[in-house]
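Methods — Computational structure assignment.
A single polypeptide chain was analysed. Its primary sequence is given first, followed by the predicted tertiary structure written as structure tokens.
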Amino acid sequence: MNLFSEDRSHLIHWKDKVQDIWWDIIIPFKFMRWRWRDFVNGIENVIKYIPAVWSDWDFEAHSIYRMLYYKLKYQEEFFMSDRPWCVGAKNTGKQIKIAKCLAKRLWDNDYLSNALIPHEAKYPHLLYRNFKAIPEYDAEGRIKWYKHVNEATEDETTSFRKCSQHGEKMRKQDSELLFKMLDKRIAGWWD
């Protein structure tokens, strides 16, 4: 084999050595850095979401709104900060803020008390449940059960019913708006 021949494939070129060092040493360190960053981010997420997960009940629909609220809250904080790279980050943050407020309203589920404000102004002496419990006794003088009697008049009951329907209508409207907004815009809420 002649060293001065045209075929020098048996010699390892210095660029190949550098490339081998790059793939064998540097790239694994980059992957380790990314893995470490993902691990730290996961720990931060566990700590951030403890309030949402701690009081979660499997049978309760409001837990979904609570978790959605926390997710949207942290997304809004990110998009309103200086960290995002996308062009319309502040606009995206405003959209997320609207969705976050809707999720918070659905989580609080305070629609009936808001709808009852005119009812309470008109009938201030009434409570939400205006029933009087009258005990009924057996032959030995012990209480068998309580008979519940409604003390409200027909006008008061009708007013309460209308307020209840209005509160349910507001809740349904917020729910539809939130999920339409998520359906339309959630694909664009990334950086």
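Note: DSSP finds seven helices and two strands in the chain.
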